[in-house]
Amino acid sequence: KNVGLQVGVYFYSTAIDASEAIQEASVVIEMLGGTGLDMPVYIDMEYSGDFPYGRADTLGTAQRVEIINAFCKTIVNSGYTAGVYSGESLLTHEVDYNSIAQYSVWLANYTENNSLPSYPHSYHIWQFTDRGVVTGMGGNVDLNVIF
C-alpha cells in the first residue's frame, strides 16, 4: 500500500463443509486484524496438486457452493468484500455461477496468445499466465488483468 499497490487477500481453501469454511474465513479475518483492503478477500476453490487425492478434490457442486457461500458470507459480515478464485473448468463445471454471482470472480485461464477466455459469465480479474516475468522477482509469476 505504501508504494501504491492495491491490496487484497487470497486464501486457498481445503474446507469440506460450511463449518470448516467459516473457520477458514474467521482465521483470515483474525489475521487481518482490521487492516483495510482495496480488493476482496478471495477464496481459492481449485484442485490440489495431488488430484484426486486432495482433501477437497472430489466435492460435488452443491458442497462447493455451500463452502463458497459460507466463506464469503463470513467475510462480508466482517466488513470486507468477498470473491472467488478458480480456473475456468472448475467454475464452469463444478460451481453454479448463479449461486456465487454476488461475489467478485477471479478467473484463471491461460489462453493461446492471451486471447480473452470463452468463460460465459462475468469476472472481475483474469489471470492469463503463470509464466510472467517481473523485474526484481526471480522465476515465473502469475500475471492478471483487473477489469
Structure description:
The protein has 147 residues and is α/β, with parallel strands linked by helices. Helices cover 26% and strands 22% of the residues. It contains three helices and six strands, in the order βαβαβαβββ. A six-stranded mixed sheet has the order 1-2-3-4-5-6. Helix 1 packs parallel to helix 2. The longest helix has 17 residues. The protein is globular. The chain starts with 8 loop residues before the first strand and ends with a strand. 27% of the residues are buried. The model has no long low-confidence stretch (mean pLDDT 96).
Whole-number mean pLDDT: 96
**Which structural class do the helices and strands define?**
alpha/beta
Q: What percent of residues are in strands?
A: 15-25%
Strand order of the largest sheet: 1-2-3-4-5-6
Which descriptor suits the 3D outline?
globular
Number of helices: 3
Rg measurement, Å: 15 Å
Which ranges are low-confidence, i.e. pLDDT below 50, for 5 or more consecutive residues? Answer: none
Note the run of SSEs as H and E.
EHEHEHEEE
Largest sheet: 6 strands, mixed
The total beta strand count reads: 6
Distance between the termini: 20 Å
The helix content is: 25-40%
